[in-house]
Automatic annotation (TrEMBL):
This is DeoR/GlpR transcriptional regulator. Keywords: DNA-binding, Transcription, Transcription regulation. It comes from the Bacteria. GO terms for molecular function: DNA binding; DNA-binding transcription factor activity.
Length: 310
């Protein structure tokens, strides 16, 4: 494929999806990430897109939100590995909330095997993934259907979450930075996500490396409320994502990183080992959820690579 054809295809992908990782671009145009990075630099010089933390985004600073069909084909291997690792945090008999998103949908497919689980969600896709699971109770919020991501939003969804208390919330978003925390591009989605956070004793963010360092319009979870981040190992050249991981760890976020090449389990990757080792937040006390018994912030499975302060 000639350089002009490659760059046109790269530009079309970014315009369609809002943000695309270099790894995904290289896979689609069937060339190396080094070549794609050179193409992205050339397109940036023409003002057609911006480089951002191991990927390319639409010009203008804040990325727009992609629709579900586009998101479902981005970083699929990374999302699968993240979901595998996150599922190991969930214990039999827990009650949790799971927000909307393609990564949380992957998580829900794995939660179908956890007996005695209660899942509260505003996502039709999460509910569908659990619809036929034995011994898993699904509780849906009310609200208005937002067709672009198959989620229930609005005052009905937020009101249905009032008075709810569960052990953990699993959320994804459009971007994650140490400065602002988790963010998304839609105001209604952000408002419901904030209500989900208020219902949980712990907040677990699921975000692949392409979202690290990306800041979008509406903040959903400030960094000091994020208990844990489950992510994939950034590529070796992606220093910005590794730096963002370190900054998040500095602020007390426990970090679990999937193995190299998107495989879950095993030892933490280089990005995880470079990060400081944060301990529990000062003043953090495990909370008791209704009907659940005490949930410890450290009750993770052995294959989760948490970073704790030395």
């Amino acid at each position: 494929m000639f350089a002009a054809e490659r760059r046109q295809l790269i530009l079309e992908m970014v315009r369609a999806n809002g943000a695309v990782s270099l790894r995904e671009l290289a896979r689609v145009v069937q060339t190396s990430e080094v070549t794609v990075r050179r193409d992205v630099r050339a397109l940036e010089a023409e003002g057609l897109l911006d480089r951002r933390h191991g990927g390319a985004v639409l010009p203008g600073g804040f990325t727009r939100e992609s629709g579900f069909p586009q998101k479902s084909h981005l970083a699929t291997a990374e999302k699968t590995a993240i979901a595998d690792l996150a599922a190991g945090l969930v214990e039999e008999g827990e009650a949790i909330v799971v927000g909307a998103g393609t990564t949380t949908q992957e998580l829900a497919r794995r939660l179908a095997r956890v007996p005695g689980l209660t899942v509260v969600t505003n996502s039709l896709l999460v509910a569908q993934a659990l619809a036929h699971a034995n011994r898993v109770e699904v509780v849906m919020t009310g609200g208005t259907l937002r067709g672009s991501n198959y989620a229930l939003v609005g005052s009905g969804a937020e009101q249905s979450l009032q008075g709810l208390r569960v052990s953990r919330a699993f959320l994804s978003g459009s971007g994650l930075t140490a400065e602002r925390g988790l963010s998304t591009s839609n105001m209604l989605s952000a408002s419901v996500d904030r209500a989900l956070v208020q219902a949980a004793a712990e907040v677990v963010v699921l975000a692949d490396h392409t979202k690290l360092g990306t800041d979008t319009m509406f903040q959903t979870v400030p960094t000091d409320l994020i208990t844990r981040l489950v992510t994939d190992e950034p590529p070796p050249h992606d220093d910005r994502a590794a730096t963002e991981l370190q900054a998040l760890a500095d602020q007390g976020v426990q970090i679990a990183v999937t193995g190299a090449n998107g495989n879950s389990g095993g030892e933490p990757g280089p990005a995880a080992r470079r990060a400081p080792l944060p301990g529990p937040r000062r003043g953090h006390v495990p909370l008791r959820s209704a009907g659940l018994g005490e949930q410890s912030a450290g009750s993770d499975r052995g294959r989760v690579a948490d970073l704790r302060r030395r």
